[in-house]
Amino acid sequence: MSEHIRVLLPEEEVDARIQEIGEQISREYEGKQVHMICVLKGGSFFMCELAKRITVPVSLDFMAVSSYGSGTTSGGVVKIVKDLDETIREKDVLVVEDIVDSGRTLSYLLEMLQARGPKSLRLCTLLDKPDRRVVDVKVDYTGFHIPDEFVVGYGLDYDQRYRNLPYIGVIEFK
Ligand code: IMP
Ligand code: MG
């Protein structure tokens, strides 16, 4: 079986949208410092590009969670593989994710972070697949709503590959 990548969102479109979100965040966080939390590994490309376009002070931290399995669907079990280095207490926290799919990972994560007492907690995702939602999650900033297809690129992987594609593509198996 061979894999083929069909372009869904070209690089220019993704970059232009990230610029818009960066400007919106810069306006809405005026006078504050944004503490961006990247959910590894998928969120890393998006977070770097977004952080570069934010004009208020920014600090960064990283965490890794795993929803078991390496196929094209995520399971219900979420495990923290790497926790944050710094406290988020009294900080204006912005969680940056690659994609919200079923919502299971994020709903678990946001609840856990909320319990640590941030001043504010918002969620920014590059992609959202609303048709797939199982658990309700409040998303504050969304790059693109996409149909229910398995996508790769811009941090998103299929079995750890394709994260480095500078665009978003749909993986097709022939
Ligand atoms: P959720 O918990 O189902 O919302 O999805 C959590 C994780 O599943 C995301 O952070 C991604 O790592 C992965 N995921 C969901 N949909 C896709 C996709 O279309 N391509 C690549 N990874 C995906
Ligand atoms: Mg992810």
What's the layout of helices and strands?
Elements (H helix, E strand, L loop, with lengths): L2 E7 L1 H18 L5 E7 L2 H10 L5 E10 L10 E5 L9 E9 L3 H11 L5 E9 L12 E5 L5 E2 L15 E6 L1
Parallel strand pairs: 2-3, 2-5, 5-6, 6-7
Antiparallel strand pairs: 1-9, 3-4, 8-9
This protein binds inosinic acid and magnesium ion.
Write structural notes for this entry.
- The chain has 174 residues and is α/β, with parallel strands linked by helices.
- The protein contains 3 helices and 9 strands.
- The protein has helices spanning 11-28, 43-52, 104-114, and strands spanning 3-9, 34-40, 58-67, 78-82, 92-100, 120-128, 141-145, 151-152, 168-173.
- It has a 6-stranded mixed sheet, sandwiched between helices. Strands 1-9-8 form a 3-stranded antiparallel sheet.
- The chain starts with a strand and ends with a strand.
- The model has no long low-confidence stretch (mean pLDDT 93).
Ligands bound, unique: inosinic acid, magnesium ion
Major beta sheet, specifics? 6 strands, mixed
Q: Strands of the largest sheet, in order across it?
A: 4-3-2-5-6-7
Share of β-strand residues: 25-35%
Count the helices. How many?
A: 3
- Name the shape in a single word: globular
Radius of gyration: 16 Å
Strand tally is 9
Written as H for each helix and E for each strand, in order along the chain, the element string is EHEHEEEHEEEE
Question: Average pLDDT, to the nearest integer?
Answer: 93
End-to-end distance: 6 Å
Estimated helix fraction: 10-25%
